[in-house]
Design a protein that fits this description.
With about 180 residues, this protein is of the alpha+beta class. It is about 20% helix and about 35% strand. The protein has 2 helices and 8 strands.
Length: about 180
């Protein structure tokens, strides 16, 4: 056996010696080369401790928000069936009538607010024109503007049959408006 052809194992014996020893001979490995199996509950706890802590913090925060919401953000009237005993439903409806008048055959463009304060338009209507709106709201704002193709035009707003505002204007392509701040 030559020096170049010999290979040595970690125990210092050559590979040729191992081949001569046969399969029955086993080499002893040093303690540093042995692999340890780690396991058990401590290893599992090391892997999942952070998600567990996050879940605990989220649960404590949710409980705190729930408790504070019960103290500050909630009143008894928000629960179903916990309304005030003297809370009455509106029963007296208001009837608002818008009217635009002028010489017969006059064509006008009319802008008005409905009782929900939404702007509405009626284009090229012949006069006289009127619309009746009804609400159960305690207050409503009534507003109407009209411009016609004649020299005279007028408007009128009545609430529950009572005249609240009336105006008449004259001029070329006359324009008028009526306003009731609280009907």
């Amino acid at each position: 056996m030559t020096l170049e052809s010999q290979t040595y194992t970690s125990s210092g014996a050559s590979a040729d010696d191992d081949a001569q020893a046969g399969p029955d001979r086993q080499q002893a490995q040093p303690a540093a080369h042995r692999t340890r199996r780690r396991g058990g509950p401590l290893t599992l706890l090391r892997k999942v401790w952070l998600p567990i802590v996050i879940l605990i913090v989220v649960a404590v925060a949710a409980f705190g928000v729930f408790r504070l919401h019960g103290v500050f953000g909630k009143t008894e009237t928000t629960r179903p069936g916990s309304g005030l005993a003297n809370d009455t439903k509106p029963f007296n409806p208001k009837t608002v009538v818008y009217e635009i008048y002028g010489p017969p055959g006059t064509v006008a463009t009319i802008n008005y607010l409905d009782l929900d304060a939404q702007p509405q338009i009626a284009r090229d209507v012949t006069l006289p024109w009127s619309i009746t709106l009804t609400t159960t709201a305690p207050a409503a704002s009534a507003n109407i503007v009209a411009q016609g193709d004649s020299d005279t035009i007028g408007c009128r707003i009545t609430v529950n049959g009572e005249l609240k505002d009336e105006k008449t204007n004259t001029g070329v392509n006359a324009q008028t408006f009526c306003l009731v701040k609280s009907a």
